[in-house]
Design brief:
Layout (H helix, E strand, L loop, with lengths): L2 H12 L6 H19 L8 H8 L5 H23 L18 H17 L3 H23 L6 H28 L7 H28 L11 H33 L7 H46 L4 H44 L3 H29 L6 H7 L4 E6 L9 E6 L11 E4 L2
Helix pairs in contact: 2-3, 4-5, 5-6, 6-7, 6-8, 7-9, 8-9, 8-13, 9-10, 9-12, 10-11, 10-12, 10-13, 11-12
Length: 445
């Protein structure tokens, strides 16, 4: 091979390539034809290999495959990784499981996380997992509020994906806490905490909706297996979200004590206080809800006893209902006592944490905050079990609705002699006066 030829090849590989205008003009038509052939129908995929070959018609092949192609791939990946761009279609962002764009949305998310991991951007990777967890929670809420007949299965799918994202957030927080390089500052962790709190609040709305509709069509049939499974799955992920929120505060404290000034000591104390108050509210909410269920069950129990005494119903069916009410009443009373203890324990832990904060002992305050979190999670499990159990007897929709309202609960037991007595629960204005009759009785709050 001559020295001149070798020099020309090296120039093509390393030098500046400037195709002549005449050459470009002569080959432009061929290039466009090649690209057109790679597109096909609207729904078909572009064959990128043909695109590179077409470009090689008017540019040296080494330049196309060694320079242009890597740069193009890097550009596309960078766009996806930094801006959340999803296949160029805005509608993909709001797509839900079952939509044809949802796969593209999830693929783009995975690409973003993969790129952040490849370049070692722990800050970006952690925030992405938190952001995607918020998306999965919002998707779950939208799905369950829809009229889709397959919404329970789809909701369980998004909840499963949400569980993975929250687990990733927890893992990243652990890594950040033990990272001595201080690449991720406390202000980033604070943003992650806000995202996990948002997930927790959204899942609470989802749970309330599920529980409220679990037995709305009948007073004697328990919640469907699918609904109960979804409630359990949502509860599990909500617990993980609460753990992530607690861990985020713990990491903030660790970073602050290591000298991180991206958040002030006042900010750290505020986050601890907010988390403590949220836990106290959760415990009180669980106790109030269980107590409301107890009142409904007891009201039904009293009325069925009256019906049995007056012999206005079939004796065997009334006796069976009385037995069921008695069992549920006993279990509910136990639940009330347990959630009341949870409230007392939580109040003590909160007081201990506040005292630690006043003394400047952030680590002790964090430990008390963890204790509050563990107690409130158990109290919520008791409530979930109690309301599902009560759904075997009474429709729980108005019971759940009454928890945050100022309305009274009215319990009515039918006096039909042809079937098992039917228990109905309705809400009435708190200021109203309800007249008792032979077939109705009111339990006022």
């Amino acid at each position: 091979m001559s020295q001149d030829l070798i020099a020309q090849l090296k120039q093509l590989k390393h030098g500046e390539v400037k195709p002549s205008e005449a050459w470009l003009k002569n080959n432009r038509a061929v290039l466009l034809s090649q690209i057109k052939n790679t597109v096909g129908d609207q729904n078909s995929k572009i064959n990128l290999e043909n695109v590179w070959n077409a470009m090689a018609l008017f540019m040296p092949r080494p330049v196309v495959f060694n320079v242009v192609r890597p740069m193009a791939v890097l550009l596309v990946v960078s766009i996806v990784a930094t801006s959340g761009w999803i296949t160029g279609v805005d509608a993909a962002y709001n797509s839900l499981p079952g939509d044809w764009l949802y796969g593209a949305k999830r693929a783009a998310e995975k690409t973003q996380v993969a790129m952040a991991a490849i370049v070692g951007a722990k800050k970006a990777e952690t925030k992405l997992h938190a952001e995607f967890a918020k998306r999965r929670a919002d998707e779950t809420k939208q799905i369950l509020n829809s009229n889709d007949p397959g919404k329970q299965a789809k909701a369980q799918e998004t909840v499963s994906d949400l569980k993975i994202e929250i687990a990733s957030v927890n893992q990243k927080l652990d890594e950040i806490k033990s990272d001595s390089t201080k690449n991720v500052t406390a202000d980033v962790v604070k943003d992650v905490k806000q995202d996990t709190d948002s997930v927790k609040n959204t899942l609470q709305e989802v749970k309330t909706s599920l529980l409220a509709t679990a037995a709305q069509n009948t007073s004697t049939t328990p919640a469907t297996d699918a609904a109960v499974q979804t409630v359990q799955a949502v509860s599990e992920v909500k617990d993980l979200a609460k753990d992530a929120s607690i861990k985020a505060v713990e990491v903030m404290v660790t970073k602050h004590l290591e000298g991180d000034v991206s958040v002030s000591v006042a900010d750290v104390k505020k986050e601890i206080n907010t988390t403590l108050q949220s836990g106290a509210t959760d415990a009180a909410q669980s106790n109030s809800s269980v107590d409301k269920i107890k009142d409904v069950v007891n009201a039904a129990k009293t009325q069925v006893a009256d019906l049995s005494a007056n012999k206005t119903n079939n004796a065997s069916t009334t006796a069976a209902l009385t037995q069921k009410i008695s069992e549920i009443s006993t279990a509910t009373n136990v639940a009330v006592a347990q959630t009341k203890t949870a409230v007392e324990t939580t109040d003590q832990a909160v007081a201990k944490a506040v005292d630690s904060l006043n003394k400047g002992d952030l680590n002790q305050a964090v430990q008390a905050m963890k204790d509050v979190n563990n107690v409130t999670k158990e109290a919520e499990k008791i409530y979930d079990k109690t309301i599902v159990n009560a759904a075997q007897l009474v429709p729980v929709s108005p019971v759940v609705a009454a928890v945050d309202s100022s309305k009274d609960i009215k319990v009515i037991v039918s006096t039909s002699t042809s079937s098992t007595p039917e228990i109905k629960v309705i809400l009435t204005p708190a200021t109203s006066t309800i007249n008792n009759s032979s077939n109705s009785k009111t339990e006022k709050k």
